[in-house]
Amino acid sequence: MRDFDEFAAAATQPLLRLGWLLTGDADQAQDLAQNTLIRTYGAWHRVRHDDALSYARRIMVNLHTDWLRRRPWREQPRADLPDTGGGPGGRHGGHDGGHGAVEDRAALVAALQSLTRRERAAIVLRYYVDLSEQQTAQTLGVSVGTVKSVCSRALAKLRVSPALREERLFVRTAQGEPS
């Protein structure tokens, strides 16, 4: 299964970043990415290889949803966030350059965690993974109209989020400044 090995090597970092944004925790993101690759491998004979990453994203969102349903029985959330240096994959970098990037990331994760599971998944897929409305709808298994309304509600919540308002992260991001 050389083609799956190549897919897994290329997809690991994007899946880790998506998992980190969904969970807000690097260790949980690794578990989620690993389980996603395991499930994708099990279905590899059914997967369209030109669309394998989309298939894996859908699995990840479903696994995350399942995990959230079981969460109260397994783990308790922490009130403090450790300084993780930017999450997996180094996309955000470990050095904040004196501009408060670590605080911005913590505020963003806190704001994302305040959204419902569906809102968080829609926002992450639509704006972080940069999927179109159609691709997001397909990944989530909903209509395009649902994606539009869910994203609209979620963005409205993020605009008034105390965590983002304090850090002014949402304003900077919306104006196109680096976060």
From TrEMBL:
PANTHER family for the chain: ECF RNA POLYMERASE SIGMA FACTOR SIGM, RNA POLYMERASE ECF-TYPE SIGMA FACTO
InterPro entries: RNA_pol_sigma-70-like (IPR039425), RNA_pol_sigma-70_dom (IPR014284), RNA_pol_sigma-E_actinobac (IPR014325), RNA_pol_sigma70_r2 (IPR007627), RNA_pol_sigma70_r4 (IPR007630), RNA_pol_sigma_r2 (IPR013325), RNA_pol_sigma_r3/r4-like (IPR013324), WH-like_DNA-bd_sf (IPR036388)
Family membership: Belongs to the sigma-70 factor family. ECF subfamily.
Domain RNA polymerase sigma-70 region: 16-73, 111-159
Keyword Nucleotide-binding: no
Pfam families to which the protein is assigned, alphabetical: Sigma70_r2 (PF04542), Sigma70_r4 (PF04545)
Region (Disordered): 75-100
SUPFAM superfamilies associated with the record: Sigma2 domain of RNA polymerase sigma factors, Sigma3 and sigma4 domains of RNA polymerase sigma factors
Alphabetized UniProt keyword annotations: DNA-binding, Sigma factor, Transcription, Transcription regulation
Keyword Transcription regulation: yes
Protein name: SigE family RNA polymerase sigma factor
Gene source species: Dactylosporangium cerinum
